[in-house]
Structure formats: structure tokens, C-alpha cells
Amino acid sequence: MRRENRKINRKNTNDKVITYGLLGTAVLVIAIIAIMTYGDIKSNSNKYANLEKNKMNNISNDIGNTQSASTQIGKTVNEVENQNVTNTSNETNTMGDSNKINTNEIANAINKITQNLNKTKNTTTKATATTTTTNENKGPSFIKPVQGDISKEFAKDQLIYSNTLEEWTTHMGIDIKAEEGTEVVATENGTIKSIKNDPRYGFVITIEHENGYQSVYSNLQTSEDVVEGEKVEKGQIIATVGRTAAFEAKEEPHLHFELLKDYEQVNPQELIK
Length: 273
Hints:
Order of helices and strands: HHHEEEEEEEEEEEE
Number of strands: 12
Strand content: 15-25%
CATH superfamily of the domain at 150-270: Glucose Permease (Domain IIA)
Radius of gyration: 65 Å
Number of helices: 3
Largest sheet: 10 strands, antiparallel
Structural class: alpha+beta
């Protein structure tokens, strides 16, 4: 009986030991799991905290940018323009050296262009002057058709007294005093355009010259030295002085001489050399 009780007691004791052992093991396992779970939770908490911190920083930066934009928007137009001018001025100062070089290059280019224009202008002026001189040299150079003093001058725009007509009238040429029979020469190279006996001016010879000029010799004695269409040279004898002009019959012997440019009378004294 006692032996059985002892067996039963031993069995109970062993059961308790096993039970307690299992409980201890279970508690230990739970403790380990709890520690590990806490570590993960803490790690995740740190990560979450860092994420939240980064979010807060981003939000702060956004707020700063928003404030800067708000400040810019809040500026007046004048403030913005002044700021732009300042920025432009700073950029210009930064580029100062390169701008100076560009300015010098531009100035040099302008100077060269100006010099070329001046050279062209001078060349054109010289060419024009040369052409004008050449044309003048090619033009008629008149000489006096007969030697003697001028007794009556050219009077196109004023009146002079005529002894023959006994009235004041114009005078479209010059009268050169010369004795009857004095030789009359061509005042310039040309072609005999006409020879006629005019009832007012007597025997008249007209010579056609270059550049639209004509010379007219009146009050001649004869006109037998030349014929119409004949080419004459400067200084060549074409006639002699006479007294055949009815309009100047009371004047002393002379040659009435006229010069025309494009069929209009001009003052011979201004062209005779």
C-alpha cells in the first residue's frame, strides 16, 4: 500500500517537474519572442520617425519657397524693375571686359567704313572735277573775231540808245570798232551754217560750233571767202568789215558780233579769251 502511494507520489512529482519545465520553457520562448518583436518595433519606429522628419523638412522647404514666391509676388512693379536693372547691371559688369572688346571692334569697323566712304567720295569728286575740266577743255574757246575796241556792249536786259533808230533799244551782241576792209576771222572751229544778206544787219555769216554754240558776224563787206557747209578753223579769215547793216548805218565802221548758246544770245565778252 505504501509502495503504491510512493509510486503515485513519485509520478505526481515527475509530472509537476515536467509541467514546470514546460512552463519555464514556454515563458522563455515568449520572452525571446517579445524581445525580438520589441526590437523590430523600435527599428520600425526609428524608420518612421526619420520618414516623418524628412517629410517635415520638405514641408518646411516648401513653405520657405512659398514665402519667397509670396514675397516676390508682393513686390511692386517698380521694385521688380529695379531688381531686374540691378541684375542686368551686375551681368554687364561681369561681362565688362568682353563688352569693351566688342565696342572697340565696332568702333574700328565704323572708322574703316567712314574712311572708305570718304575715299569713295573724294574719288568721285576728283572724277567729276576731271570730267568737268575735260568737258570744259573740249568745249569752244573763243577768240576775238577782229582787233579793235568795243564801241557798244551787250545789252539784253537793259536798253541803250541807237543813233540810227533814234530810240532806246536792246543790243544782242557787241560792236567792235574796225576800219572797212579789216579781216574778220572765225572765233572757233566750226562749220559755216549760213551766209545771207539780211535787210537789217547786212551781210551775215553764222558758224555752228560744238556744245550748242553759234557765232554770228554782221555788217560785213563781203562773204566771198567761205561757202555754206564749209568747215573752218579758229583764226581762219571768213570775211571783211563793211557798212551794210541798215540798223547801224549811222554808227562808225565796226563788226557786229553775237554768240548764241542753244539758240539764245549770251554775252560774248564773258566767253572771249
